[in-house]
Design goal:
single chain, six-stranded antiparallel β-sheet, globular, Neuraminidase, 4 helices, mainly beta, 376 residues
């Protein structure tokens, strides 16, 4: 079945205008969801609208990973059997393929800057181990870089054989925190940060910078929203640090993280462009419908100069390919991938149906994982 096609030619206008809903009826809920608002919105929408389980899974997984290369996009997708696969779509043409290894669930896909590798995480159904994989996109030969029973997400191919990711660590108070690590094939992971965040995702690298969305207390500057009522102040969970791409290191780490991109509303889920000069992030207007996230585009100094206003249920985080920004948007019966040329302000789009029946018609990708063949 061919992908739905859109002809969307327009000027990118940054519109933080959201519709529907009364803020006063959800103040209690909004305040409790700070830092993971889109996921909370998925649960809230599912609980109040009576939607089925699969629809709720789609609403959650839209945040699980979206990535793009010159020729391809890929993103996490529920398969209808309580597992998740990774769909791989040609940006030109109707090619659709699916990573859906039998008895595994998959998440957090990310292409390398040159598109020659795809990193992602998988876990066997019923198993405890999570595996970080790096696959050559020309052959789908894959290596397991790291295996752990801890939470594992947001891998990024940083080049030179280095893959950055987030995982949980033991905190000083005995709890669990999240920090950034780097791993190379055949070597043990190396810890890059020590902020013990409550949550940390997504990670991106560009030029000499690394960015991530995070929440925390010990390693973070005090929040301006001291009473955690996020309707009373603007807030950002976006952090940007120096990055040494040659050595996959974070030099000059501050003692406490200070947020960046504190524009009007609540900002989260940052993605850097490959050269580190632009950032796309999700932003919600606290004066309107606070769980509806639009996507904003800004220069590295935080000056917003474009974006999309959400029309469906939710946006994914963005993905840059050169001067083009791509983002996935969830609708009731399909996904819509928007592609914006930031130089010409031309926007185009394509869509894909997300029903389990359609997914069964997609060509499966056979992975050769460390010498063993694996497919759906």
């Amino acid at each position: 079945m061919k992908k739905l096609k859109y002809a969307l030619i327009s000027v990118i206008v940054f519109l933080l205008v959201v519709v529907g809903g009364s803020v006063t009826t959800v103040v209690w809920w909004f305040s409790s969801c700070q830092g993971h608002m889109q996921q909370c919105y998925a649960s809230f929408r599912g609980a109040t609208s009576g939607v089925d389980r699969l629809t709720q899974e789609r609403q959650r997984s839209i945040h699980g990973g979206f990535t793009a290369s010159l020729s391809t996009v890929a993103f996490q997708i529920p398969l209808g059997d309580e597992t998740e696969g990774i769909v791989v779509l040609d940006r030109v043409g109707d090619g659709e393929r699916l990573i859906a290894t039998k008895n595994y669930t998959h998440w957090s896909p990310r292409f390398s800057l040159d598109g020659e590798r795809l990193v992602f995480v998988r876990q066997m159904v019923g198993g405890k181990d999570r595996e970080l994989l790096s696959c050559e996109t020309s052959t789908w030969h894959c290596s397991i870089l790291f295996r752990t029973q801890a939470a594992l997400s947001s891998p990024v191919d940083a080049g030179n054989g280095n893959v950055i990711f987030s995982t949980t660590v033991q905190r000083a108070d005995g709890g669990r925190g999240v920090d950034v690590f780097v791993v190379r094939k055949g070597q043990a992971p190396v810890r890059l940060t020590n902020y013990e965040a409550y949550a940390l995702s997504p990670i991106s690298v560009g030029g000499n910078k690394i960015a991530f969305g995070a929440e925390g207390k010990r390693g973070f500057e005090p929040s301006p929203c001291a009473d955690r009522d996020s309707l009373k102040c603007d807030k950002s969970d976006i952090y940007v640090l120096e990055f040494d791409p040659s050595n996959a290191a974070i030099p000059n780490k501050p003692t406490a993280l200070a947020p960046r991109f504190a524009v009007a509303g609540y900002s989260t889920s940052p993605i850097l462009s490959g050269d580190g000069k632009r950032m796309a992030f999700l932003n919600t207007n606290r004066k309107g419908n606070p769980w509806r996230y639009n996507i904003a585009v800004a220069d590295i100094n935080g000056v917003v100069d474009g974006g999309f206003s959400v029309e469906g249920s939710a946006f994914s985080s963005g993905a840059f390919v050169g001067d083009t920004l791509l983002v996935n948007e969830l609708f009731d019966d399909h996904y819509r991938i928007l592609s914006a040329d930031l130089s010409s302000r031309r926007v185009t789009g394509m869509g894909m149906k997300h029903s389990p029946e359609h997914l069964r018609t997609i060509e499966p990708i056979t992975l050769l994982v460390d010498g063993q063949s694996a497919t759906w």
